[in-house]
Amino acid sequence: MIPENPYLLLTPGPLSTSKTVRAAMDRDWCTWDTDYKSIVQKIRESLLDLSHGGEAYTSVLMQGSGTFSVEAVLWTSLRPKSKILVLSNGAYGQRMARIATSMQAATVVVEFPEHKQADPETVEKTLQTHPDITHIGMVHSETTTGMLNNYAPVAALAARWGKVFILDAMSSFGGIPLDVKWPEIDFLISSANKCIQGVPGFGFVIAKKSTLLECKGNSRSHSLDLYDQWETMEKDPGKWRFTSPTHTVRAFLQALTELENEGGISARHARYAANHQTLVSGMEKIGIKPFLETKDQSPIITAFHEPQSTAFSFEKLYQLLKSEGFVIYPGKVSQAATFRIGHIGHVFPEDIHRLVAAVEKIKFW
Question: What was the pLDDT predicted at 335?
Answer without folding.
Answer: 86
